[in-house]
User: What shape does this take?
Amino acid sequence: MASARLFKFKTGSQSYVIGGLFIALFASIGVYLLTNSHAATPYISTSATSGTTGCNASVQSGAVKFGTGPSCGGGGGFTLGGGSNMLAGTIKGTDANSSQAADVATLGGFDRLDVTGGSDNGAVKRFSDAKVRVDLLIGSGDPSSWLNLYKSVCTATNVQANECPVVEVENEPDLNHVDSHVYAATVEADYKAFHSALGASSPAIVAAYEGSSNGGGSYTWGQSWWNWNPDSNSASTGYMKNYVDGVYVHPYGHHNQTSICSAPYNSLTLSTNTNCGVWDSALGDRGNVVQAHTDTGKPIYVTEVGWPTDNGTNSVPMNDSNIGDSYQWPRINCSSNPAPNAPSDGNLSGLCSGSGSSEGDQCNNVYNFFTWARKTGYVYDVTYFGYNDYGSGHTFYGLTDGGGNKKPAFYALAAFAKNQPNPCPNALTY
Assistant: This one.
């Protein structure tokens, strides 16, 4: 299961730059970003030891409220929080073109952007132009370099103010075999660098609290860094709560049966299967989300969750040995399972028509998980993995297929973002 989760990102997307190479790379990137037309001089200092709380930002009842004004580059007001303020979106990343960035805007307007390689490749600007905000995924290394990159690409005067309201510290560090105590030190250093320089305008610093309620894993790694004081190099219960604004989890559904499969879930019918393990996978690992919040008391950021469709069959959900995150989800016969709330844009002719097939189960899974997360009140973000299919069948997580065609799940997320009813074929609530 661990190797499967590492596999989902494309080659090179989780690379980490260290030592002198890291510093040299960011020095050159900083010069480029500050002198080229796509990123004008930031409205705050690029020094890690100084800066202002631009855009009239303030902390209100545990949420960050970003203000408005000319200094904000036209970004407008924005609240980071749960419930109706929950961020929603998908993972398109640095290869997003303008059209795809516009699609992400219709899917909730938020994107997880991996800059661990050291450059955003202009993606923040493209997303900004489409009114999409960004979860900036950073890696290990000198926190002042990450701060300078953030300022250069996320608070420049020609992008929306506070374009990157969330900074996520490393992707799945537990599965990358990062020592938990080293990770605690990294998180603390990043938190201090951003908050010291930016004050109330700082993005939320979000760290990995990994584990699984139904996948056979545990929270040992997350608990280890959470209860560690990197300054004294000793255990200290809950010490790190002072150095994170939230924690993130990746609650993929897996394919294991647990006690959560009870009424009403055991009485519902997916397209071809009512097995309890299948229902657990359809729900997503909601217990993971609940437990992380219970353990830490912090806002939860779901920075990955997804359900791959199968590679052409109509069988029950398949357990492909190459992936451990979820079943591959079957297609359904659309002639007997019409879409009740079909989109009117004509791109997919009502999601489902004639005797063709459609990824209806994936559609329901997406709509229902996002809806559940928003109802918790403490989930601040859900970003779906991912925008498009890649690889072979077991990596067909996408909201669009390899040819760019929109799946029903695309419309499910768009409908959620607009507070519209479930548009899926054979719409179900769970």
Notes: The radius of gyration is 21 Å. The chain is about 30% helix and 15% strand.
